[in-house]
């Protein structure tokens, strides 16, 4: 790229960043009233929901990872970055706590990497310590591989939902999943996923994946998460999809999991599961809550 073209590209990028920041600031000012006056026990959930709505204004989706002061921490899933003095709480879009989020953990790692330059980051989650290793970086775009740990794969389970039998593989990645293999995604797959989530077999709820096999190392997946509904991407959902496909002999490691929100790569080394995928720092905003 020539000098003038490079200079123009930098100007365009700066303008885009300013526009995003302005959008976020405007959205936050409009929504901050939603969290004022909340009781202390409701504050964290309300704050997460408000921030999540602000994300939607920017065309973003997926569970939010929110940094809170120590005295604001509530019981539930915590992510504490070792060597970083700011604990954070991981919650879903509806404000409820999550044991772990592969995408959320990776976003925390990208933030810490940007702040401190660390390339290997240990993060304590509700599902144990996850080690994130930086594999590439270009400007504000990062790629990490996370040591997710061991998966628990159960035998195939048949569920009766609205008079229809749905078969799938229960998988635990530190959080619960139910993986159903399909040849094609039904137009009403979201309704079927919601029926699975309401099954008495999953009293704590479950994340649902519909998975189509595309080759020896490729699958396509649709995600329906607890407390969220349909999502464009899921880190632990990608792991569960790949692990179930590996356990049933449909694929071989490594497995590329293609979803509407992008592709993530899952590999196994012995019993250990590793997840590789991107995280990009788009903008930054602050909430001031009295």
Which SSEs are present, and which pair or pack?
Elements lengths: L2 H29 L8 H18 L7 E3 L10 E4 L6 E3 L11 H15 L3 E6 L2 E11 L2 E10 L1 E2 L3 E5 L2 E9 L3 E6 L7 H9 L9 E9 L2 E8 L3 E3 L3 H13 L7 E5 L2 E8 L2 E9 L10
Parallel strand pairs: 10-11, 12-14
Antiparallel strand pairs: 1-3, 2-3, 2-4, 4-5, 5-6, 6-16, 7-9, 8-9, 9-10, 11-12, 12-13, 14-15, 15-16
Helix pairs in contact: 1-2
Q: Could you give the distance between the termini?
A: 49 Å
Q: Could you please say which CATH topology of the domain at 150-276 applies here?
A: Diaminopimelate Epimerase, Chain A, domain 1
Morphology: globular
Largest sheet: 16 strands, mixed
Number of helices: 5
Give the number of DSSP strands: 16
Radius of gyration: 20 Å
Which H/E pattern describes the elements? HHEEEHEEEEEEEHEEEHEEE
pLDDT averaged over residues: 77
Q: Please identify which CATH superfamily of the domain at 150-276 we are dealing with.
A: Diaminopimelate Epimerase, Chain A, domain 1
Tell me the name of the CATH class of the domain at 150-276: Alpha Beta
Q: Into which percentage range does the β-strand content fall?
A: 25-35%
Helical residue percent band:
25-40%
Unreliable stretches (pLDDT < 50, length at least 5) are 8-12, 28-43, 59-89
CATH architecture of the domain at 150-276: Roll
Structural class: alpha+beta
């Amino acid at each position: 790229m020539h000098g003038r073209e490079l200079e123009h590209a930098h100007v365009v990028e700066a303008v885009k960043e300013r526009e995003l920041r302005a959008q976020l600031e405007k959205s936050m000012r409009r929504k901050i009233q939603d969290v004022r006056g909340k009781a202390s026990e409701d504050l964290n959930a309300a704050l997460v929901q408000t921030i999540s709505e602000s994300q939607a204004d920017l065309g973003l989706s997926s569970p939010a990872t929110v940094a809170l002061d120590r005295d604001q921490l509530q019981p539930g899933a915590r992510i504490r970055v070792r060597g970083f003095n700011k604990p954070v709480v991981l919650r879903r879009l509806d404000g409820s706590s999550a044991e772990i989020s592969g995408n959320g953990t990776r976003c925390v790692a990208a933030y810490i990497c940007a702040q401190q330059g660390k390339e290997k980051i240990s993060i304590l989650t509700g599902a144990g310590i996850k080690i994130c290793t930086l594999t590439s970086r270009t400007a504000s775009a990062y790629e990490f591989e996370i040591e997710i740990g061991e998966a628990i794969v159960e035998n195939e389970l048949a569920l009766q939902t609205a008079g229809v039998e749905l078969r799938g593989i229960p998988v635990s990645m530190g959080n619960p999943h139910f993986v159903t293999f399909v040849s094609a995604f039904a137009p009403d797959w979201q309704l079927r996923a919601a029926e699975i989530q309401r099954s008495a077999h999953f009293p704590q709820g479950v994340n649902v994946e519909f998975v189509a096999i595309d080759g020896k190392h490729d699958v396509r997946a649709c995600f329906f998460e607890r407390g969220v509904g349909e999502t464009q991407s899921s880190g632990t959902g990608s792991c569960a999809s790949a692990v179930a496909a590996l356990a049933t002999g449909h694929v071989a490691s490594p497995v590329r999991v293609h979803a509407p929100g992008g592709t993530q790569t899952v590999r196994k080394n012995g019993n250990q599961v590793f997840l590789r995928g991107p995280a990009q720092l788009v903008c930054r905003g602050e909430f001031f809550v009295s």
